[in-house]
């Protein structure tokens, strides 16, 4: 079972999650948003668009994901429109994303299943979403959180790294981190944590040499595993 890992330290303030989110909002203000939140703000916030966009985003940079999704959604924004595309057309529209051919197959397949098994509506439970090929816990959580507005914790590499680095949780994998956060994190932060920590992880709390010396979280962060920093 994942456990909270931050014992009191003489040179650190107690970890206050409300204060942490206040600082995070200020720290990432003006930074580019995580892809799915950026797409939502550009008008692509339906459950289907968020499901497809999250699948496209897997192992693809946010900047590329946004370009590819806007190109695709200019042509097809519903399951009906998606299955009307030929495999070749869909693959071409996904050019630039990683693994465009497998993702095209998965998008066509889930679009068809949404039409035939779910009366054209994206299901709104994790299990039903993860029954689609190519959809794992993170994609399901993003679809629920951003597409439906249902509290769900989407854990990517940034969220996993940062909350463990803080010492807020101690979990060896993103899946275990998700479970730990669902136990420890107030529900009203479940959606927001991904929105804030993705840009925070890209620009400040980076994987290598994080910018600790100027980080607003430094007084509370346990800096677990940090050996060098800026």
Helix/strand layout:
Elements: H1 17-28, H2 35-41, H3 47-57, H4 62-73, H5 79-84, H6 87-93, H7 100-117, H8 126-130, H9 137-148, H10 157-166, H11 174-184, H12 192-203
Helix pairs in contact: 1-12, 2-3, 2-4, 3-4, 3-9, 6-7, 10-12
Brief synopsis:
This protein is mostly helical and 230 residues long. Helices cover 53% and strands 0% of the residues.
The total count of strands amounts to 0
Derived from helix and strand composition plus strand pairing, the structural class reads mainly alpha
Counting DSSP H or I runs of 4 or more residues, the number of helices is 12
CATH level 3 topology of the largest domain: Endonuclease III, domain 1
**Content of β-strand:** under 5%
Tell me what the structure shows.
The structure is a single chain. By secondary structure, the chain is mostly helical. It has 2 domains: 17-30 and 153-220, Endonuclease Iii, domain 2; 35-148, Orthogonal Bundle (Endonuclease III, domain 1), CATH 1.10.340.30. It contains 12 helices and no strands.
């Amino acid at each position: 079972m994942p456990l909270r890992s931050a014992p009191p330290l003489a040179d650190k303030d107690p970890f206050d999650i409300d204060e942490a989110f206040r600082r995070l909002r200020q720290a990432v203000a003006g930074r580019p948003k995580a892809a799915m939140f950026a797409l939502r703000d550009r008008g692509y916030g339906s459950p289907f668009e968020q499901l497809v966009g999250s699948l496209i985003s897997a192992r693809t940079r946010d900047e590329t994901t946004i370009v590819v999704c806007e190109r695709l959604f200019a042509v097809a924004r519903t399951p009906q429109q998606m299955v009307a595309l030929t495999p070749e057309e869909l693959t071409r529209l996904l050019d630039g994303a990683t693994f465009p051919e497998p993702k095209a197959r998965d998008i066509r397949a889930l679009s068809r299943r949404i039409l035939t098994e779910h009366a054209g509506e994206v299901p709104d439970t994790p299990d039903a979403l993860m029954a689609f090929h190519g959809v794992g816990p993170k994609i399901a959580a993003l679809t629920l959180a951003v597409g439906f507005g249902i509290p769900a914790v989407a854990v990517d590499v940034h969220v996993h790294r940062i909350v463990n680095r803080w010492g807020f949780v101690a979990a060896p994998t993103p899946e275990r981190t998700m479970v730990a956060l669902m136990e420890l994190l107030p529900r009203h932060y479940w959606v927001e944590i991904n929105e804030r920590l993705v840009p925070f992880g890209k620009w400040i709390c980076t994987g290598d040499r994080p910018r600790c010396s100027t980080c607003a979280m430094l007084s509370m962060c346990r800096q677990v595993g940090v050996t060098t920093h800026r």
